[in-house]
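Folding Query — how this chain folds
Tokens — whole-number codes for backbone shape
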Amino acid sequence: MDLRQLRYFRAVAEEKQITKAANKLHMAQPPLSKQMKLMEEELNVRLFDRQGRVLELTKAGEILYQKAGHILSDFEDVLVEVRETSEGIRGPINIGANKSCFSFLSATLNRFQVNHPNVCYQLREGDTYLLEECIRNREIELAVVRKPLYSEEIDTLPLPSEPYVLVYPNTWELTSDDDEHIKFAQLKDIPLMLLHRIKGTGQFELIVEEFRAQGVEPNVICECPDAAMLLSLVSSGMGATIVPESTLSAFPFQHLKSYKLANTNITAKSVVIWHKDRYLTKASHQLIQTFKEQFFHEQPKILL
């Protein structure tokens, strides 16, 4: 059995039909069928059960599918690492980011691009849960996300924490005793639209719990995982939102005003994350170093 056969097998398992898998692999159907038969003969087990026109994995097939995925991914890591012994920093870099902390990424990429103009990028947007999944599935190498995290397989570089701000339409007559801060009690009845992850807990729960700790029940009229969509709705006059301070500068919509939240210690915490047990390309290592230079004023280091 070789790597080529493992790739063929995983394609058949994912497409559930020989014909579809052959099309995906850009090969004829009979040679692919022959390879599946040879694998079953070599292993002396059935890898597929036929359910009408659909091929379903047997228990043995499920085990091979999972193990083959690890083998093929590890082999790709080996190829990248070997190539990089004789090459400089190269792309593409596959990166993810929450929109609510995109300003951290944009500032760093600007700096990185000046020093490494030949590197290209593939960006993925999503909430923290989704981007952790993307890292586990090797769809991206790095991501900039909001805490909390879920996986124990992740390494992190903490970024500076920041306050939350109330953002509201400039047509509202919302005043405070303090020119910069507003108390939770003053937000009791205003319609709020809050960030809420598609899966798991995060900023939504943090903010709602803080409201209740301050003796106020928030009037939440909308929940959304996309910070830019919420700011657009605020700009239209639909309601107010609470987002990390840098989010407001990353998406400068018109017709907005803001206050920091008074008498609270809650802060938005962001981290750069990557898989702790996988090979990171030179470009990704250098990008992590650039984050340190950008936000913690570390001296530049060039990876050889």
Notes: The chain has a mean pLDDT of 90. The first strand starts at residue 48 and ends at 51.
